[in-house]
Amino acid sequence: MPLVTPTLGEIPQLLEAQLRALIAAPAGATLLALGLLLLALTALRVAIGLLGFVYSYWLRPERNLKRYGGWAVVTGATDGIGKAYCEQLARKGLNVVLISRTESKLQDCAAELRERYGVEARVCSADLSKATPETFAKIGAALEGLEVGILVNNAGVSYDHPEYLGEVDDQAVYDMVAVNALVPAMLSKMVLPGMRERGRGVIINVGSGAATIIPTSPLLSVYAGTKAFVDCFSRSLDAEYAPLGVRVQNQAPLFVATKMSKIRRARLDAPTPDAWAAAAVRQIGRESSFTPYWFHGLQRVFVRLAPDWLINRQVMGIHQGLRSRYYRRLAKQQAEAAVAAAGEAAEGAAEGEGEDAAAGGTKRELRRRK
Ligand SMILES: NC(=O)c1ccc[n+]([C@@H]2O[C@H](COP(=O)([O-])OP(=O)(O)OC[C@H]3O[C@@H](n4cnc5c(N)ncnc54)[C@H](OP(=O)(O)O)[C@@H]3O)[C@@H](O)[C@H]2O)c1
Q1: Following DSSP, what letter does each residue of 235-298 receive, concatenated?
Q2: Does residue 256 have its Cβ closer than 6 Å to ligand 1?
Q3: Mean pLDDT of 229-242
Q4: Which of 256, 299, 300, 315 to mutate to test the pocket of ligand 1 (most atoms within 8 A of CB)?
Q5: Residue 259 C-alpha to ligand 1 middle, in angstroms?
Q6: Quick check: CB of 157 below 6 Å from ligand 1?
Q7: pLDDT bracket for residue 325 (50, 70, 90)
Q8: pLDDT for residue 359 is more than 60
């Protein structure tokens, strides 16, 4: 029998007839019922997810932070997210111990907190990338006798620019592993016995969307790896200590407008450190791994929906672009430096010739005078 191709106008009737035939058959009706059930369940899941999103970001009440203890300790406290975190905690009436490298910046930030919020503020300068047992002993001494209710392991270091691991400076690898992974583990270890004894406390580890949200972060592999440690460490430690009254959380931002991200102007997907820290403080005592800023949360939902290969390709493309831009800028700077050096050399040579000529002239004048 020859095949008859339906015209465009006949297609809806044909589909309808086939659907009717399907429903009429018992297996077809069951299939359709299952399909509708699946659709209803999916719609319910989406609705619950949406309500959960709105509740977590805007509706659920904040914890009373002072009930964890009178003091908070913040690392990387003099800039960006850490500084903003200190302000948010001081605003809630907590005394703060600030830890960073630069003593003068620490003193300025502490003075500002005392003046603006009337809280106590102490400082402890330490280069966490060179953390040794002595460094931890120094920090331990600074915390002696304080009821530390909140520890914010915020200090973190990243790549200067996205790069293939083979090309990354050795020291940068040591620094990232030390500051991002070793130090949070050691400082947590330091404050946990006191928190456990009191049966209350919170440890916040500032992670990164590079590990918690995005499936892979090529060209930032060591940074993302250390932040994956932060995520798993936080969730594991939370499971370990939550039954004892101590909570541990990974709070993971995507972009925030700070020196590290090199984003100067805040935008919807890269809030100011203040906006991010205000959102983060609202989530203290909640999920063991969370994205506190709502727009990052939305980005997380979309990343989860998209296939990994697509996200990975996008991220690799962005990082490749940033790397190329870095090398273009470097080449331009080197070319400018070479031109400037050549100019200086030419000037020097001309000055030298001038000096020689002047010396010759002086000699001639002396001979003439004689
Ligand atoms: N900004 C983002 O887009 C972004 C995104 C995801 C995750 N994060 C995470 O958020 C955290 C804070 O980042 P940020 O952007 O606020 O950084 P930032 O603006 O560069 O500030 C870094 C802070 O850490 C201190 N610090 C740096 N190296 C240190 C060291 N070796 N020892 C002690 N203190 C040191 C700095 O003060 P001194 O220089 O005086 O020591 C400064 O107070 C990091 O863990 C980072 O991985 C940031």
Answers
A1: HHHHHHHGGGTEEEEEE--S--SSTTTT--S-BTTB--HHHHHHHHHHTTTS-SEE--SHHHHH
A2: yes
A3: 98
A4: 256
A5: 8
A6: yes
A7: very high
A8: no
Mutate to test the pocket of ligand 1, among 260, 267, 289 (most ligand atoms within 8 A of CB): 260
| Residue located nearest, by CA, to atom 14 of ligand 1 | 80
* Domains of the chain and CATH, by start: 64-311 (3.40.50.720)
Spatial CA neighbour of 276 closest among 96, 105, 82: 82
Q: What is the pTM of this model?
A: 0.87
Residue 292 Cβ < 6 Å to ligand 1? no
Q: How far apart are CA 349 and CA 178, in angstroms?
A: 49
DSSP H or E stretch at residue 72: strand 71-75
Judge contact between 33 and 23, C-beta under 8 A.
no
By CB atoms closer than 10 A (0-12, 13-18, 19+), residue 147 is middle
Q: Is the pLDDT of residue 365 over 80?
A: no
Tell me which residue of 41, 42, 22, 40 sits closest to 32, measured CA to CA.
22
